């Protein structure tokens, strides 16, 4: 039996999620070692973020033109914006590293990065399920995203405790506090994606 053709909004959401997945893969795999690689890291993530912004603008334009949408247009827009918030957070993290000229990672940043990468994988799965109208299959993945966010909450507290307990340079305390908070906010944005998906499931399943 032939599969039904995906609507333009499902296609756009999938493109946004795929761009986020590619961004997260680059984010976790690229190794910054000096100022040159730091600039390349920041510039590349800015390119991913710009690509994401273009997808969002296209989505808004299509929503404004559409007479009927497969799910409520407000839900599509909210989901789109929450996906974009994750991408914006990753780009903000790289920009912060460049501003502070931080060219090395630590165990907390590495763990955050791993968790964010896992969230992006789960997000792509959920959006592809949404595009296939398999709403009931989304819930376990939304729960997984929330579990990862909870792990990030715990990691955030642990990273700050370690920072305030061991770091004696007040400038570094300020810098790394902001970095850890930015990473935790990215995880919060991932949870917002999960929450928006659960709202869609509740209204349409």
What does this structure look like?
The chain is mainly α. Helix content is 82%, strand content 0%. The protein has 6 helices and no strands. The longest helix has 35 residues, at 170-204. The protein is globular and about 60 Å long. 31% of the residues are buried.
What's this model, at a glance?
With 205 residues, this protein is an all-alpha fold. Helices cover 82% and strands 0% of the residues. The longest helix has 35 residues, at 170-204.
List keywords for this structure.
205 residues; globular
- Would you report the number of β strands? 0
- Strand percent estimate: under 5%
Structural class: mainly alpha
Radius of gyration: 18 Å
Termini separation (Å)? 23 Å
Low-confidence stretches: none
Mean of the pLDDT scores? 95
Organism: Bacillus australimaris
Family: Belongs to the UPF0111 family.
Protein name: DUF47 domain-containing protein
Strands, helices and their partners?
Blueprint lengths: L7 H22 L5 H31 L7 H28 L6 H25 L7 H28 L3 H35 L1
Pfam family, one: PhoU_div
Protein name: DUF47 domain-containing protein
Family: Belongs to the UPF0111 family.
